[in-house]
Amino acid sequence: MPTPSAALLARLATPYTAEALFDCLLDVVYFVKNERAEYVVVNRTLADRCGVRDKRDLIGKTAVQVAPPPLGRTSWEQDVAVLRTGVPVLNQLELHVYPSGQAGWCLTDKFPLCDAAGKVIGLAGVSHDLHAPDESAGQYRSVAAAVGHARENLDRRLTAGELAGVAGLSVYQLDQRIRRLFRLTTGQLLLKFRMDAAAEQLRDTDRPVSQVGLACGFADQSAFARQFRRTTGLTPGEYRRTFGTGPG
What we know:
Layout: H1 4-11, H2 19-23, E1 28-34, E2 39-42, H3 44-49, H4 63-66, H5 73-85, E3 89-97, E4 103-114, E5 120-129, H6 138-141, H7 144-152, H8 160-167, H9 171-182, H10 186-204, H11 209-215, H12 221-232, H13 236-243
Antiparallel strand pairs: 1-2, 1-5, 3-4, 4-5
Helix pairs in contact: 7-8, 8-9
């Protein structure tokens, strides 16, 4: 006997993609891609952020084709990895930089889609926007000292234990409150602060990349470059060339 969900889906006139539902969510990007990593379903938010008026303009294109180079490359590389391995992308903190130059933080998830034989034939994904918490809220005041300490000490590697001590909480208590306020783990929040600071310095100054990395807690320039590319989709040099406003 089929499951209730299978029985319902079998009766639908057309496959259910949830496109209309996700069109209602302004802070969520939603997409379905085929085995060539081409968009086959997108929501209105994704079209808006790609600068197109009609969602159909994205269908049949890859992330590389939608965003001008070098934007879109990392998203496409993620897609190819999911399609090749079947391993999902889960809760990936990313700084999305749009063709307009506007940037925003999000959490991205991508899941493989398989046929009846188990072969990966596509993927579906969402990216949820992250919003700053209300700093006047009582819950925020309980972690404010730890957040301030983190922002003031980006040049060295901080631990959750150190931040918990500053807040007067256990590591578990701090992480639970950070999750409720920021929708991030303590480690993800620290990474966000470091990448924010790095992006600002790359954009607005001419400091060497190695010095930017040191100022943001990376002793190794190659480690900084790898993390920055994984998070923003661009190498530090590409980000500076694309969005830099600093002297020279």
